[in-house]
Amino acid sequence: MQFWKNLSDRERLLIAAATVLLAIVVVVAGVVSPIVNWRADQQQALNQAQGVYELVTQAGARGGRGTSASQSSTPMRNVMTQSASAAGVSLVYVNVRQDGAVETNASPVDPAILFAWMQSLEREYGARVVSADIAREQGQAALVRAQLVFAR
To answer: Are 93 and 106 spatial neighbours (Cβ–Cβ below 8 Å)?
Structure first.
């Protein structure tokens, strides 16, 4: 408090004005700006949700339960790598789990190509999708990244 008393009236006025200005900046940044940007943020969330919906709808349309192929003697790992290469899907990770299922991670790819590949695996080799995590690639909305687990 001694500090405040040692200041001249002009210095007190400058500090008070700076404090008021800081308070205004905090209120604008913390309250007004989020309210003003709310609509744009919600529009972006809506666009992302519509993209996911379209992706899921496309997968559902391509999916369907066809007749399952007979069990092939070809190891699942080989089936995954060969069929992915033929379909134009680049796998960056392929791992055979102890239960015989195969985990794969696909590089960014067109969703139509990915879903066609998944459908052909089920139709031709009897490999069904046990788990799938498919998301749009950041910065490339036309492509998706996939983490998949297949089993027979």
So the answer is: no
Per residue, the 3-state secondary structure of 34-77, as one string, reads: HHHHHHHHHHHHHHHHHHHHHHHHHHHHHCCCCCCCCCCCCCHH
- The CA-CA-CA angle for residues 77, 79, 113, to 5°, reads 115
Please name the residues in contact with 45: beta carbons below 8 A apart, sequence gap of 6 or more.
none
Helix axes 76-87, 111-120, angle to 10 degrees: 140
E-assigned strands of the chain? 91-96, 102-109, 128-137, 140-151
Q: 149 — phi, psi (to 5°)?
A: -125, 125
Whole-model pTM?
0.57
pLDDT tens-digit series, residues 73-97: 778 888 889 999 999 999 999 999 9
